[in-house]
Design goal:
Blueprint (H helix, E strand, L loop, with lengths): L1 H12 L3 E6 L2 E6 L6 E4 L3 E7 L1 E6 L2 E6 L2 E5 L4 E8 L6 E7 L2 H8 L17 E5 L2 H12 L7 H17 L4 H5 L7 H14 L7 H7 L4 H12 L3 H19 L4 H7 L5 H12 L3 H13 L1
Antiparallel strand pairs: 1-2, 2-9, 3-8, 4-7, 4-9, 5-6, 5-8, 7-10
Helix pairs in contact: 1-3, 3-4, 7-8, 9-10, 9-12
């Protein structure tokens, strides 16, 4: 079976954690479920070969397991946790970067004109069952690791095949929007990048809407549909992630970290931090530093 061969290939090439296998391709093996971890998505397709994982984005919970894949089309704050992983049966997966320039090139092919169109803003994160064709393409890509002479010629061809299968599959609307310069995803992406770069500043939905050339109501609907969060909720997630990184460097300066990311009230910062990470800022920073020092 293709899934069995995929497990064998990932086991062969992945160390504990994520390992770069090819340009734009990661293989991963995780031997313990571990606690929920806050991180950011990338523009990626993540295929599970063994085990299971849960990803929370805003108010949406995405669960995917062996034989399923997740696509993410924006860099968004998420909470993830492997729910089925052990030394005897590690969670195994393959990640492929979704490159907008390759998707845009494929959209120029005449065959792309027969792909379905959607007017609504698709979600930035979605899960589907992997087709036999998709599994076969991913397996053939990993087989190239044993054929270094063929790899530079065939890997780009198989990448295009995988992307085409994703573009024409169940979550094709999410993937195709990556290649469209004026899509609803690209407009929301403009606002997402601005919020990330200016997370400590107050934001107004009207200003973000103007930036993306949408009316405030249309912008709010698109942002919510794509990210599963309002712009204010998204900004709060980014602020708390940035504060956490600051506290890892300066664990004793809780008030300073909160102020640096835009909080005027230390009590509000501590309250929202505890709600997000399950403990106080100071305790969380000390725990993270202990983990790094091991």
């Amino acid at each position: 079976m293709l899934l069995d061969e995929l497990r064998t290939l990932v086991t062969r090439y992945a160390r504990d954690g994520a390992t770069a296998a090819l340009d734009g391709v990661l293989v991963s093996a995780v031997t313990e479920p571990g606690p929920p971890t806050v991180s950011s998505t990338c523009t990626v397709m993540a295929l599970i070969a063994q085990g299971a994982k849960t990803l929370v984005l805003g108010d949406r919970v995405h669960e995917y397991r062996a034989g399923q894949y997740l696509v993410a089309s924006l860099d968004l704050p998420v909470t993830g946790q492997f729910t089925a992983a052990s030394p005897a049966a590690p969670a195994l997966g393959v990640g492929l970067a979704l490159r907008p320039e390759v998707i845009a090139e494929l959209l120029l092919h005449p065959a792309a004109g027969r792909l379905p169109r959607t007017a609504a803003a698709p979600p930035a994160v979605a899960v589907s069952d992997a087709s036999r064709e998709l599994l076969d393409a991913v397996v053939r890509m990993l087989r190239l690791l044993d054929r270094p002479r063929d790899l530079p010629v065939l890997a780009p061809m198989i990448e295009r095949e995988v992307l085409w299968l994703l573009m024409s599959g169940e979550q094709g609307a999410t993937v195709r929007q990556l290649g469209l310069a004026d899509s609803s995803l690209s407009r929301v992406g403009t606002a997402v990048r601005w919020i990330r770069d200016h997370h400590a500043e107050p934001i107004r939905v009207e200003d973000l809407a103007s930036m993306t050339h949408l009316s405030p109501s249309a912008f709010h609907r698109s942002f919510q549909a794509v990210t599963a969060m309002s712009p204010i909720q998204f900004q709060k997630q980014i602020r708390l992630q940035e504060a956490r990184m600051l506290l890892m460097a300066r664990p004793g300066d809780v008030a300073g970290a909160g102020h640096a990311v835009g909080y005027e009230s230390a009590s509000q910062f501590s309250r929202e931090y505890r709600r997000q990470f399950g403990t106080s800022p100071g305790r969380d920073a000390a725990r993270l530093r202990e983990m790094i020092a091991r």
